[in-house]
């Protein structure tokens, strides 16, 4: 009799130990599940964002591609934040504003009503590669293709060969030729008209990122070349073939302005509605030394 009682007690104790082990296992599994839930709650969105959200470079490209001349200075500030610097265009009511950001800089020249007449973007970041759709239904690629191939057509057209699309008017300025840094500007041959909303655009290379020097621009003035591509010296042709542009400029002539580029690569706006005609000159078409911090893009 005593033996059976002891055996029963031993069996009950075994069941209790087994039950305690199961309870501890259940608690451990519960804690583990709770921890997994917490981690998923905290880390899950970050992983999801990483997998689904566009990269910073992609977002920046989209942001920049939506900007253009003809918008208001306030709309630029709403997108980019407040300008890092502003100054008047000498002898005029126009304002030159600069927005310097981590891997790009934007410049605007706005009229007295706050409408942007010139908009330009400078990018020294080889990974950014922004693109801009022009009012002439072409796309300008910065940092991606050489200057000789930087412009492509939005519409299939057998006549729009790379040579035709990239035949522009050249204003090439080495450093020291009336400028603090080099500017190699190319201006579209598609002049302002109703079909392009009276816009012009340009592209090229600003020496702010890497101050280039092109030897033997012209025999009479080695510091600059102003003219067409067919007459350009071999050094210019080679430069265009091997160098990607780093700036783009969009110019709104507002129907009534006659636009030109002076011998130092600055924009000139002439209004013939008055007699004598009013002239606003010295308008920057790209950013260069003196307009952005010295170490920008370095």
From TrEMBL:
Residues 168-185 have a biased composition (Polar residues). Residues 150-201 are annotated as: Disordered. Keywords: Membrane, Transmembrane, Transmembrane helix. It comes from the Bacteria. The keyword Transmembrane applies. The chain crosses the membrane at residues 25-47. This is Uncharacterized protein. It comes from Cryobacterium mannosilyticum.
